[in-house]
Amino acid sequence: MPLCVILLLLLLPAIVSAGVPAVDLEAANCSPSSCGRLHNIHYPFRLNTDPPQCGQPQSTLRCEDNKAILEYGAEKYYVTNISYDSWGVNLINANLMNRSCSLPPPSHLFDFSIFEGLNYQRGNFACFVNCTRPIQHQLYWPVPCLSRNVNDVHVYVMIGSLRCDVMRLEPSCGFLSEVPVTAAAVMNSTVDIFELLREEFVVSWYWAELAWYVTKDAEYKIIHYCLNESSR
């Protein structure tokens, strides 16, 4: 089998999986949108009232009461800023805004493939754990309102740049939930974890776009090589 055919067959899955079409936004009638204080919304984001080709499906926003909302399943986030220069979008977890003492549901925002949506790159994680005995550890901060000493339920939260990792888990503890928090998040005895969860954090779509550009560059080079071979 000719080498260029092999290369094209190898490239095909990457082209299909990238799934980021080259869109002529002007020809597709894609003008920037606004929602409340958020202006100049454009690719890869779009409002749900904009034409489908004007943005990525996973980056579709809904405008509700002059607030831009990004939804992933049951998860709902307020979009407070989009920086196209730094490839970052500021989010606030809307599901946690009115919670004063309840375990946050685990977030799946950063579980999406880089080819499918946003990628969490610029912040910390709040990792909630439940232990059957009290823990004395510098990383474990107690959450008294979720703990029940009488039933040996001791809930703690860890804040850090690492996701919930079994290596950080004490023997008597198990994972409960993991949610993204601001990069500036630091726990101490004066910090209310539930106030911290209501602060905005930043996610990035840089790696998704980078992966597409790398794929397109490889596609160009392989096709160029095959054209040269066919002309000989």
From TrEMBL:
<feature type="domain" description="Wall-associated receptor kinase galacturonan-binding">
    <location>
        <begin position="30"/>
        <end position="88"/>
    </location>
</feature>
<protein>
    <recommendedName>
        <fullName>Wall-associated receptor kinase galacturonan-binding domain-containing protein</fullName>
    </recommendedName>
</protein>
<keyword id="KW-0732">Signal</keyword>
<dbReference type="InterPro" id="IPR025287">
    <property type="entry name" value="WAK_GUB"/>
</dbReference>
<feature type="signal peptide">
    <location>
        <begin position="1"/>
        <end position="18"/>
    </location>
</feature>
<dbReference type="Pfam" id="PF13947">
    <property type="entry name" value="GUB_WAK_bind"/>
</dbReference>
<dbReference type="GO" id="GO:0030247">
    <property type="term" value="F:polysaccharide binding"/>
</dbReference>
<dbReference type="GO" id="GO:0016020">
    <property type="term" value="C:membrane"/>
</dbReference>
